[in-house]
Records
---
Amino acid sequence: MQDCFEKYNYWLQHAEDGEVLRSLKSMNEEDIRNAFSKDLQFGTGGLRGIMTAGTDRMNVYTVYRATEGLARYMLNNGMGSCAVTYDSRINSDVFSRLAAAALAYHGIKVYITKECMPTPYLSYITRYYGCDAGINVTASHNPSLYNGYKVYDKHGCQLTDAAAIAVTEQIEAVDMFERPLPVFEDYFGKEITYTDEQAEQEYINCVLAECLGNAEGLNVAYTPLNGAGYRITPAVLSKLGANVEVVQEQSFPDGRFPTCSYPNPEKAEALTMVMALADDKGSDVVIANDPDSDRLGVAVRDLKENGKIVQLTGNEVGILLCDYVLAKLSERNQLPARPIVVKTIVTSIMVDAVCAKYGAEIVDVLTGFKYIGDVINKLEQAGEADRYVLGFEESCGYLKGTYVRDKDGVVAAALVAECAAHYKRLGKTLCDRMRELYGEFGNYFLRTTSYRFDGAAGAELKEKLLADLRVSPIEKLGASKVVKTCDFLTQKQYDLPRSDVLRYNAQDGSQLIIRPSGTEPLIKCYVTVSGTSEQINERCGEIERQLNAMFAK
């Protein structure tokens, strides 16, 4: 087995791409160890990594290797077509065109977008063109140094575990320097064609068809965070009747993200400029998409807090949408028999109480929207797709409708706008409605804390810390005794795939879920507590200090 320096020298001898060669020649010993210590792992979330040379990095050779492996998998399984799009990141257009050419080399038909488009649009066009697979070059909300590569199945759903393992086996057999990199122009107009404007319009029509009202009279401050939602989301909001103001500095695609180093709409820092715009324009609601426009961040002007703009959590937005959609469908007698709401296991349990009010069944799945998409697939196969009402995860991902199989920040933006407009006409804000829901169902609070482990040494430490937890389980959450533990690697209680997730439930009702991120070098911790404001602050503080002692190394 080659060590990292042997791999480095092999690349130095064989790489022909100018950008990769410049990166190789600039590396010191630590850079080489970090870039070549292992191969960039392909999983159900595809690839994601820093853009430099190296086997554990995103570059033209790792993208080629992944696509060559995917092509072999497709040919072995009688698949002959693929949809491709990309986000606004540096090199996303380069990587997507390379992927298209690598597929076309094998005679696979490729439909590729002319420009960056939202992630849900990739899911849509995979289905629209009847493709066997889809590729999206995106690193979602990661910092600008990162890029990524996701693969979708014929349903427009990210690959589930078994398919990802099969593709990985093919990728591992590929020598990335076995032939010169294929050239997009050699295949364009033959195996490769651009998607058409009709597909985009049909997607927008599907989004609008999921709306249950309008957003007339609502003033929205919006930012795409220099991402792929820059055209479509404002257009949809305007069609609903909203008055939309866009942050000009963030209104165009720019993979450098010059005004926001971490373009994650979950984080308050990412909303700084759009919240300032909302203050300046007197907007009712702040709406933000991440760079690939599958997530949604929301903040609301709270009239009971002197007009201060307050950011809502991903859970609060999901709870508000769940309540609004179920209520609206019920009022219209359009709620299906045995309705289903799908959520991830780390999402607020308050949703269960909201759903119980309307007789809706909750389906819990592992973290990752592909599992929500898979539930829709199974319902569709059983002829029961109409039972699906809403799916969401606490990390700001939402989907109403079955026209795609991934979270959709465009339809989420539309639903939030019409929901806010509905309550504005009643003299309320979304903050007012959230307070009403807390009063009705209980005061739940969920806080997510992440701990970062960069580089090869960080990856080893992260694995050790998680392994240690299985040897020495947590016995208390703060001051309360743990009464139930679930290890999702070994559990048999739920019909779910094995997953590196640990859940602890304490006597006072507190809950802690710990899992490694699938897309970033993080350990993520989800703390749920309930009670009075004083009890919530006390319990959260105790658990946070406990987590810092465990993971803040």
---
Amino acid sequence: MALMHRHPDRHAHRVLEVAGKGFREEGDDPIARSWSRCIDQYKLDPGRLREPAVIASEDLRGRRALCADVIECARYEMNTLYQQLADAESAVVLTDTDGVIVHMVSSPEFAADAEPMGLRAGGMWGEAQAGTNGMGTCLAVAHPISVRRDEHFFSQLTQLTCSAVPIFDPSGEIIAALDVTSRSSLMQQHVLVLLGMTARMIENRLIDKRFPNAHPLHFHSRPEFVYTLHEGKLAVAADGRILAANRSALFQLGLRSMDEIRSRRLDELFQTSLEEILQRSLSSFFHPVVAYRVNPSLRFFAVARRPASEAVKPLSAHSALPAPETFRAASPPGAASAGVFKDTRLIAHLQTARRVIARRTPVLLCGETGSGKEVFARALHDGSPHAGGAFVAVNCASLPESLIESELFGYKAGAFTGAQRSGRRGKILQADGGTLFLDEIADMPLDLQARLLRVLDERQVTPLGTEETHAVDFQLVSASHRHLPSLVCEGRFREDLYYRLAGIEFNLPALRERSDRRELIHAVLADEGGPQCKLSLEAEKLLMSHPWPGNLRQLRHVLRSAAALADGGAVTPAHLVSLSAAPPSPLAPEASSAQAREASAPAPGNEAPELKLTPLQANERQVLLQMLAQHHWNMSNVAKALDVSRNTLYRKLRKLRIDISPPG
């Protein structure tokens, strides 16, 4: 359907009437203010036919060159956002500071319909050219905004709804606007949340891009928020000078501007030096370590790394294995201490697994949730012939079904408008020459299981939207906490794929069964409270006798709370208050794929019901759960953040089957 305007005379009359009343009646309404700017400053007439303004191709090339690093940092995030929206009637748009579109992602059909309106690369969407609209008005007010249908200045645009957020460069200046324009009835506050998250990811990428020789430092007052969008991020020079920071860093440090933070040194903000944080980060395998701020009442957890140019090269295929008494894995964030292997069963499993994987035999890891399957897989990779390649992990339970296929197989260039020029390499191609780790493999949809089986048999992968094949060579490690043979009998997992994955199968022991749990307990406590934090004999006895139904994740949670309560002193039984708290119930073997996917989502609580959700609804549900957790389930604060009434919020929660009682 072509984009058409409706009732132009009536719309123009309303715009002129509202703008003519001034701000006394309209208050601080940003739409009314924008309409007044369009009339008073830009001399625009809402009753006249808008002529779309598009710059010449040579001018567009010049503008793209000026913001090339921003476009490069935004491409992947824009593609991901477009897939999350799952709306063919929308476009994700990036403009420069003048409101000129420099990059756009949309379906070919929507792009063709919107092009006559100037919604295309080179289109000028500043307020002076396009009147009130998401992109132009966002740049004018330097603030996130939604412009819904009849809120547009020109009647030709009233079929559209636009939401936009500003993107800031490392100096704190607005460098672009990121927009979603749609003719569907999307929940705009939901879209604004997703846009805000995407903008923060682009800004963080831009810091790395512009300061490649700086030391990246990540921090937060809560360790679980390090490596998330809530973290503070700094670019630190070798002498400790702070070169750049993201907005979260400024907020957490109580500073107002980039100029203010650039006048500081790291040892002024934290009671430690850059070199000390680097050494402690390395020894903890880049799990957040305690660093105190100048104000003793506030402490942060921080991780620092060497510049990318100084990164340590991965082990070669011929590197010697560690001594058999102890194995340490290069762990992902949050699992560092779990990478110390002194348990005799784990050591034997790892030695056997390294021998068989060297002969191209797939490995299947089984065990309870939280038993350290990914840590084991990384240790296996590090001592394998493919150690020089990448370790690529895919959690099949944490990805929406609509994204798993493109994540695994990638897509060709031009699969949709705005796709990367060279297409997108999927995880399988990224793992070429290394190891592909498929976690929670039981949650892979049946149709994708067939495609994966074909890749394993043919050692070739075909990206989406093309018939071209690419040869691949990778080691395969899979994992699941569920009993795959039972799922095979129920018809929920392919029998041929199961036997292809289970070249050799290992059952990893739970924490309560590990002979090295004493060493693990002390190592995790050192991570959470610093090397000065010790255990009393009574506390150690309690921890050693606990059944640990939550495994390593529960251990880390218990010791994190205890270290905080002990405040640098010895941890006693009185500090183990969370030890008696009921752990979350593990998913039963017969739990559905949707339940497993929800249980692994970032937002806590609310076990997912048996729902048939569209991809957009699934994303909306996840965002609402995150906001509920962020506001501690205070409905008034959540409703205020979403700019809706409490009744509207309650209706939305009931529709998405979100239990309004907070998780205990």
---
Amino acid sequence: MGFKEWLSHRKYKNQEKEVKKIREEVKHEIEKIEPGSMSALRMEYADMYETENLQDNLILYEAYAGRGMICSPYAIFKCFLNREDFNKYEHIWVLESIEAQKDTINMYEKFENVKFVQRDTLEYCRYLCKAKFLITNLSFPNYYTKKTGQIYINTWHGIPLKTLGFDIPDGRITGLNTIRNFLSVDVFLSPNRFMTECFQHAFRLEGLFEGHIMESGMPRNDNFFHTDRKEIIQKLKASGVEIDPNKKLIMYAPTWKGDKYSAPDTSTELYFKLIDVVEKNIDTSKYQVLVKPHQIVYKHIMEKGEQLTGKFIPATIDANEILSIVDVLISDYSSIYFDYLASGRPILFYIPDLEEYKTQRGLYFGIDKLPGPIAQNFEELGEMVADIPAATSYYKEKYEIEKEWACGHDDGNVCERVIDTVIVKQDFSNMISCDYKSKKKILLYSGGLKPGKTRENLEKLISKLDYEKYDLTLIVPHTENEDIFEWIKNVDSRVRVLRRTGTHSANEEEKVCMEIIAKHGVKDPFYEEYYKQYFPTKVYERELRRIVGQTHFDYAMDYSQKSPYFMNLFSCLKETKIVTKEELESFEADI
């Protein structure tokens, strides 16, 4: 029986009515969606994902969710500007506000192959679906889904002193979109062996990640070798920064503080106090002091409507370009000091809350590894800046040791190597791989994790699994329930936890069919012909790729077995044994 016959058959009149009713309900809900909202964007993105073709010469750059032309994506772009093959490619830059960054955009108006788009717009989504190469130093939005043939390059944004990923005490709860993004990456750019190990272990990529790590230096550190001092000073002046080109520059660049990255401490009192202390202890006819707030802090200060004085450097100006003209850096546990080691110039540390921070977040290195003197109060800081050569003399050997391991590959040609190897040649043969084949990989959806028999059985499975033979990735729900939070935080540390953040992208007809599936399942014979016509296979394929990227698994199962959603999702996995409810008992016995 065909679909039209199915609709007209008397036996199916009630089903026909229900399909029509659900379609009207979905249409009504869609009409209520505000244009430009995330829900509207997801629907458009679903269609673009299927209809837009990749363009081999298209490169999309994004740094800190569109904060500006900064960090390693900017360094790679800037290197491209001086290459003969620059015009062979179309370069798309993502900005969080086109209006606020008109001065930056105007700098490149003579280049027909350089275009700017605003983040989280339809145009942005279109380029996410069209660009062959995607370059970011952080992560793309939670609706981003990797397309077959795309090459996703993640530069990350610094060597960490603070713990990352699953090494953070609450990392299983807080690292939602970052971990999800990482499973879609093709090439991580690593500055050194330590950062490579962070990718492998802190983010639990070892044994799962199917992309590559290129350990060849930090692209943004090329700025120490290829930056014009006059040009940077002019850029600072144009942004309202009060800088004297005839004076040496002392810059204070702390990391963010607070309980959440998305809601940092935005108090500016410390900044003004530090400026005052330093200025009272230096020769201001020879030195000047500026502050570079952390990217996320500056963003929130601006959103609050505060007006910062000319002593503050905007987040839209590349930090490493500025570092190239800095004579003395004052920092805390910010990763910026690792970059500055390449300069060979003095670093001072002001860390009044070291013990508190170690308790809250954790550090990879003790203070004995810091390549400069440490002040824990303003009095000690004043003494240090009053005689910088004396304060730093003891740390010269330690400085060189830290510089060697952190910046050993930084020779001014990192970006050239990245462009030639990853973009031009697309040669990944000499890179580091994390996808070891020694273990069988299991993908398991936990269900809702409410206390009860299902959770107890899941705990038994986790406890008896032989982790020498199996690698377990557990998808858990995105919930605010404190009991479930505690369960996730305390589950066996050998389990790789992925909290599902965001949701699938679907167009109108796909939404209708998913509503019917939710109500009637996929085995209802009355809807068999409808499913043949409209079953939303593409939604499940996109959502699976959105959650686990390009990863392959040996086994997959929905442990809750209460909804067809995850079984439909897992059915899209290639060469994977899908464990059904009937097979679950024997599977548990086998492992």
